Amino acid sequence: MTSFFIKILMVLSFISCSDKGKSNMTKQVDTEKKVSSVKQDKEVLSSNNKGYLFIEISKIYHNQGEFSIQGEDNTSMFYFVNKNVTINGKTYDIINDEHLYKNFIEVESYFPEYGIFIIKAEKLQDGNYAAVINGNKAKIDGVKHKAILNFKTPEQYVLDGYPNPSKDNPVRVSPNESSDILPNYGDHTYKSLEINGEWLKVKDDKDCYSGEEPSKKDIMGWIRWMKNGEVIIDIRHSC
Predict the structure, then answer these.
(1) CA distance 147 to 75
(2) Using one digit for the tens of pLDDT, what is the confidence trace for 95-105?
(3) What predicted TM-score, i.e. pTM, was given to this entire model?
(4) Which of 192, 106, 196 is nearest to 157 (CA)?
């Protein structure tokens, strides 16, 4: 009888150890999953440090604001204050003299009369931004000018704008290069719906259209927005 109880105790002890082992293994797997998830999150965040910096130039012009872009040696490349911009020691009216100085500011998009000023930039860990303007390295104080800056990832940039298809990058029926091109795609203006990999789903804009009235049926298709890690689609920022 005693021998029987001893055997029972040994079996229970073995099961208990086995369960603990399984529990430890489960905890280890869960921990590894969490670590992997954190690593992936960091990778996603780090890949989003390059994008587009929107400068609210209307606030500078109408609200007596101030904004500066500096070179690598901390000298002033462009200095905006109130209604003026100073470039190479010469001062211009931001809007009225745009045709005289615009060639000096080679950025993603610059139409101050419409409040558009966009620079391709890299967001740095200290909250500042690095950019290349006119082939020269530049930096922007993201802390000082925080109130008039809005940084967007490439995805946000594309989804928030108005995609403009072209002969080289038309609207296709499906998201692949071999898909048929949408007939008469150039007759419509479009808005962005969603991103699927390197493709952007678009729909004709019923509020902004060419012709006397918008299309009665929805015109939907796909435009390739990215290739080899670069944004290739033309994005407009006003209808």
Answers:
(1) 23
(2) 999 999 999 99
(3) 0.77
(4) 192
